[in-house]
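Before a colleague's protein record goes any further, I have to sign it off. I want your independent view on whether this chain really folds as the tokens say. The record follows directly below this note.
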Amino acid sequence: MFFRRSKTPVPTDIDGRLAAFDRAYAGMFPGEPKPWESTVNTEQPNAPGKPWLMGKTRWWWFSRASAGLLALFILIVFWLAITAPLSKSLQPIAPPRITLLAWDGTPIARNGAVVDKPVEVKNLPPHVVQAFLSIEDRRFYSHWGVDPRSIARALWSNTFGSGLKQGGSTITQQLAKFTFLTPERSLTRKAREALIAFWLEGWLTKDEILERYLSNAYFGDNVYGLRAASLHYFYRQPERLTLSQAAMLAGLVQAPNRLAPTRNPQRAAKRAKLVLNAMVATGAISEAKADATPIARIDVRYKETLPTGTYFADWAMPQARLDTETGYADQVIRTTLDSRLQNIARNVIARAPLGNAQVALVAMRPNGEVVAMVGGKSYKESPFNRATQAKRQPGSTFKLFVYSAALRSGMTPDSKVDDSPITEGDYRPKNYSDRYRGKITLKQAFAQSSNVVAVRLYNQLGYSAVARAAKDLGVESPLTRDASLALGSSGMTLIELTSAYAGVAGNKWPVEPRAFVAEEEGWFGWLLSAQRSFSNAHHKALLELLGATVNQGTGRAARLAIPAYGKTGTSQDYRDALFIGFAGDLVVGVWIGNDDNTPLKNMTGGGLPARIWRDFMGQAVKGAGARPKPKPVVEPDPEGPIEPLDLPEIPELPVNINGTEVRVDPDKGVTVSGQIEGVPLDVTIGRDGVNVQSREDPQRQ
């Protein structure tokens, strides 16, 4: 074969050859740019050894920046080592406790945790350990305290997952967090947590870390540690836990109070199923075994535990536990309880002629902050809280919701209603003493607590309208679906009823009673708030009805020196007597009744409950008490009798003798309240002679 030699001289240098290749290649792609045809500066100003910025090379800046970052890292680690409780992390863990303070800082209760003996991993069934490791830390025995893979998986799941937030903390980190650190959420706390985790991994074995974790983790219901939780929820030692029971307990540590099976059995069961699926994913059990494992049934056997010492603290402590479940350290929490108002309530209750009956009082601000609470005559004799736990019939105090529905339908306080006997239908309630007034205004019917008018309004408006008015104001208890509902036949707690009246007092409803000050609501929170308000006309009409009850109706015994609003209530057969009302910046509810639900010997809401309410308000609200009459100025007589100035003045002295109440007042005289042939009478003997007055106490005031 013959080859034709080109006459073009072959370049001898490599640069020339590359240039020829570039030109030939560019001829095949004429549209491509030709950088070699431009003027190229062969010098590289940024090359190593050449000045780059401020006369320094890139390598100079890179080396200095690296050294600065390394020094900063060493300083941060040193600072964390000083501030983190490394030495404490190896000490025995003390059970946490919560101290509640009154608003002025006075300690009112201190409550410790329910704990038991620690557990040992070697004595636990394998499925118990696998349940916790599968759901909390699958690589526990292979990482060094912090697991980057787990953190990455949590970030990916939280960013692109179904919305269920996951944590990337290992069991070692969790032990560091809930036993040695505060529950704050910050990068500093996370850094300390990681440092303590490395420290624990260096000084303790994996089994020792796991044993500390299982023996101190929080499982809800104020129970700490696996042994205490196993005994509390299933009444068995952790060494005998079944697979289903272990799965449920392992699922609780993520959110103990929200997942506790005693409160949310469905959530606890769903979480336990998730634990079983995690055990399948790790190979601890087979899928068939997970499907065949039933949901564990709890066996809670309540023990007689030491109460906190006050009704308010018993009610507030579970709320405090819910808010502080992430922290293991001691907590000191300030409540809304006002020591001055609590003492007034206690003293007023102590002076009331209750006989064998029980009593409850709740005082709150219009926003729901509870400032005083009495759940019975004696906490020592009975810690049962009748203000928050007892569901009793509200009687005519429920009429607030009936009349609110009537106002919403377009009626006004001056609208005419029929106060005559009901002669049709199966339900035919009567007014007290069969007294009827014919055509009267809505305000008069409310003030005199007419039963027949309330039932007629219920029949006219329907159940849905009345139930909606009650639920709008925060009533969550089930309501009966018959006309007796208008007279308060459905049971509810005193604090629930008082909260509804607080919604009227502040014209912002529903109101949730609380023991701790709520965070201030920003404009965005206000925009999304579920609270609503009445129209000005509706709210003004409700105040007119409630004011008429105190000024000229069944609640006259509750009158104050300032505007007061309220409603009396008496359940069927005089089993419950109530007065709910507000004045100034306080909303107060008073209930009297017998624990066995027996009658109260004709006691009504307009009697002793209204007087207790008045006595409390008179001392609690500035200017609400009766103004003393001015006494004439008399010059002392040096020759007169000796005056023992250290003796107290004679206060109003209520005395109860066989159902007859005697009150001594230095200004009014002696008042005897009782009944003659079933007719309630007040007989007053004073400077003006004898005054006999009949008391109007409707059957359901």
About this structure: Confidence is low (pLDDT under 50) at residues 1-6, 38-43, 642-658. The CA atoms of residues 244 and 296 lie 5 Å apart.
